[in-house]
UniProtKB/TrEMBL annotation:
The keyword Isomerase does not apply. The keyword Membrane does not apply. GO terms for molecular function: hydrolase activity, acting on carbon-nitrogen (but not peptide) bonds, in linear amidines; metal ion binding. It comes from Cryobacterium fucosi. SUPFAM superfamilies: Bacterial exopeptidase dimerisation domain (SSF55031), Zn-dependent exopeptidases (SSF53187). Allantoate binds at R208, N267, R280. This is Allantoate amidohydrolase. The lineage of its organism: Bacteria, Bacillati, Actinomycetota, Actinomycetes, Micrococcales. Its cofactor is Zn(2+).
Amino acid sequence: MLAGLDEIAGTGRDARRGGYSRHLWQGADLELRAWFTERAERLGLMVATDRNGNLWAWWGEPGPGAVVTGSHLDSVPGGGAYDGPLGVVSAFEAIGRLQASGFVPSRPVAVLVFAEEEGSRFGIACLGSRLMTGGIDADRARALVDPDGVTLAEAAVRAGVDPERLGADREALGRIGLFIELHVEQGRGLIDLGRPVAVASSILAHGRWRLTVTGQGNHAGATLMPGRRDPMVAAARAVVAVHEASSAIPGARATVGRLEVVPGGTNVIASTVHAWLDARCETDAGTRALVAAITARVEEAVGLNGCSVSVTEESWTGTVTFDHGLRECFGRELGGVPFLPTGAGHDAGVLAASVPSAMLFVRNPTGISHSPEEFAEADDCVAGIDALETLLRSLL
Ligand code: HGY
Ligand code: MN
Ligand code: MN
Ligand code: MN
């Protein structure tokens, strides 16, 4: 494992799920933030937290036109060691190398860690970058609740962030001249190409929807089977409907990875089940059509058990095409580097609507991500740092 990843390898391990659970402003995330500060200070960088809880480490005076690189330190529940941290560790490594060689940057440089990239605590992925760019309304963000019923506003206060100042941050955004996010690949593109590093070309359109299935709560022992309106059974049919509707559309991806059963007792027929749908497709229109097809199938499916369903959009990101100028520059500087699209969402994708943004991917030999099986060979991580260093040299 890369030296920097080694330093945080013990932080946020999840003994029950395997892998890591590192969620916004909770124990492991706070420890990682402390690590970030200490790591940055070892390089003489100046650390600051912005209005939305994103962490910055500056090499040189903070100012407009900065070359900014980084990723995130939070994880999905039971996630891998590389998704997020690889980009942060690589940024520090690349800057350390530039400093060691006596390189003097001609513009400000910063390492940036976005808050709540996975949306694992408050449900909205890329929350820190959406807040910064004004992509989510601050009132709506403040009212988001975590699984324990704590609002984002309350959690912010506990973390020392003023909830009244959450929201579009023109000053922070105005400092980003361009953003580069290095990330472990979440797919098999580089395995198939037999290459260690690629440049991102695009991100699929994607979003999250809440399916609320409503039935009739009742006693598990006193209620005979005929006539039950059990939303768990309806939700099971709904999950199958999601899988079947999306499997019929080439290139579509749709997943239900999280359910909340209300009230959730072994001897209780549930009254409501919330199921979260993650749906993605190549184009915006294709993704909208996918969700429409899923909605129709799910409505029909839950009706078979006398239940009803409502579908609410919780987040949306249209297809991202990364900055052509940066892609050309990366192609030139990293001679012969392949370009790959991705189905995974990233803060770089959210930022791309506001500032020139680009991504580097490092091969993942398992092809598996959002799982403890996610991996990257040390040699490939070094190839990623080499690429990032080359790009920083040419852009600075
Ligand atoms: O869910 C995603 O695509 C990303 O990894 N946050
Ligand atoms: Mn992820
Ligand atoms: Mn990530
Ligand atoms: Mn009883």
